[in-house]
Amino acid sequence: MIISGHLNLKNTALLYSDLSIRLSEYPETGKIVLKDIKALDSSAVQMLLQVIEENPAHRHIDLLADEKEAQEKIALFGYNDKPDIEKESDTGFFEKIGQQVHDYWRNSVVAFLFLTADIMYWTVVDIFRKDGQRKGTFVQQAIQIGVNSVYIVAPLSFIIGLVLALQSAAQIRNFGANIFIVDLTVIAMMREMGPLITAIILAGRSGSAIAAEISTMKVTSELDALETMALNPVRFVTVPKMHGGLVTVPFLTILADVMGIIGGLLVAYTYLDITPTVFINRMGDALKNRDIIIGIFKSLVFISIVVLTGSFFGFQVKRGAEGVGKMTTKAVVVAITLVIIADSILGLIFY
């Protein structure tokens, strides 16, 4: 017997009655296979085992699964010592490659797109609906993602702005175009370096924290507990982080821009003899509203990528502390990669 689809608290009662009828006509020995399971929680596993063991004649029926996560949940109840399904060993090389590509597409790309749609939906809906939200979570996440990142974003942005201006000044000085150091520093920080520096720092700091928190909650079955209480884990855990990031990161990016520009001003004053008054006046001429808007828009895209990536790998974790570490590392690496790719695409669009 093959069972597929969603197995959770919502359909446990219906599935219980249906299985009871089917097993009454089932042989004493056999297999129940969980295949292509979209969702499986502890209540569903307990129900399946209860149905099988209610009649002593059915104690020789094995409950198996074709996915590792489902196998591990069954193993937690100590039912089977052999949770793996027997697979044909005569598969060819190209068939294995095709199966791996298919599994990667289904378990990674498609799953990421579905999670993205779910998070974005609740991110918008929860702006207008306050029911089911924990009080104070928005402020808590805003402090963790935004305020607590100031101490690292500000000095690094200052140093990068200073180095950027210093390296550029050496070349600009040869052409007698000292004043253009203002244009280069201001536009580069506003449109490119400020949002990118902030996003990379947050990917390493907040992205890893998000992945570690969610993966730990999954390993300790806290996410299953939320589902048992009819609470959506995405809405309850991830959406407050998205709200906190979307509100605070633009301000964090503006801070990075300002600190980088201050670093450039210091170089212009000490190395090119450009006074702060001249620097600020030139900055007013060089900087356009479009540059500020592009930088803020990039920051919103980047923090969305960081939160989505951290959440995705957090939900994908397998049992055990080792899995938490692996998924946290993957979340940081993938988030930084996606941020740089997104920055390249947006750079081409807004060129």
Count of discrete structural domains: 2
Largest sheet: 3 strands, parallel
Rg (C-alpha, Å): 27 Å
What portion of residues is helical? Answer: over 70%
Q: Which secondary-structure class do the elements indicate?
A: mainly alpha
Estimate the strand proportion.
5-15%
Query: How far apart are the first and last residues' alpha carbons, in Å?
Result: 58 Å
What is the molecular shape? elongated
Oligomerization state: single chain
Q: Total helix count?
A: 12
Strand line-up of the largest beta sheet: 1-2-3
Q: Which stretches are low in confidence, meaning pLDDT under 50 for 5 or more residues running?
A: 81-89
Average predicted confidence as pLDDT? 83
Element string (H = helix, E = strand) = EHEHEHHHHHHHHHH
Question: Total strand count, please?
Answer: 3
SSE arrangement:
Blueprint: E1 2-7, H1 12-24, E2 29-40, H2 42-54, E3 60-65, H3 68-76, H4 93-128, H5 137-145, H6 150-172, H7 180-219, H8 222-228, H9 233-271, H10 276-286, H11 289-315, H12 321-349
Parallel strand pairs: 1-2, 2-3
Helix pairs in contact: 1-2, 4-9, 5-9, 6-7, 6-9, 7-9, 7-10, 7-11, 7-12, 9-11, 11-12
Structure, described:
The protein has two domains: 2-76, 2-Layer Sandwich (Transcription Regulator spoIIAA), CATH 3.30.750.24; 122-349, no CATH class. The chain is 73% helix and 7% strand. It contains twelve helices and three strands; from the N terminus they run βαβαβαααααααααα. The protein has helices spanning 12-24, 42-54, 68-76, 93-128, 137-145, 150-172, 180-219, 222-228, 233-271, 276-286, 289-315, 321-349; strands at residues 2-7, 29-40, 60-65. A three-stranded parallel β-sheet has the order 1-2-3, covered by helices on one side. Helix 11 runs antiparallel to helix 12. The termini are far apart.
